[in-house]
Structure to design on (106 residues):
């Protein structure tokens, strides 16, 4: 069991080491159920490893942190695109405001 856990952890770390992180800010509000559903749908987008929402109810705005796997040039038949995230935000009645690449140190 311990070996299996360690192997899964190593695979996860390797994915993160070769991925990219993006942030997409938005205006609007979601309840907890909608937030969980949004995160699930976002994580199903092409090449997305994880998707987490940080929301400030008092300000009516938030940010989505998206971890995307790095892909080779030849694997661009179905690449990650912020357009898909924007469409998902709009489908939940949220107003997309700013998409950024979050620089990570390696």
């Amino acid at each position: 069991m311990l070996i299996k856990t360690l192997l899964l952890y190593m695979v996860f770390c390797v994915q993160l080491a070769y991925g990219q992180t993006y942030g997409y800010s938005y205006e609007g509000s979601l309840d907890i159920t909608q937030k969980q559903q949004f995160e699930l749908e976002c994580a199903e987008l092409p090449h997305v490893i994880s998707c987490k929402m940080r929301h400030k109810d008092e300000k009516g705005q938030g940010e989505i942190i998206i971890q995307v796997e790095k892909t080779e040039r030849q694997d661009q038949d179905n690449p990650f695109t912020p357009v898909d995230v924007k469409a998902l935000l709009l489908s939940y009645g949220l107003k997309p405001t700013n998409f950024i690449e979050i620089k990570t140190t390696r």
Observations:
- The two ends are 30 Å apart (CA to CA).
- Confidence is low (pLDDT under 50) at residues 4-16.
- The domain at 2-102 is CATH 3.30.70.100 (Alpha-Beta Plaits).
- DSSP finds three helices and four strands in the chain.
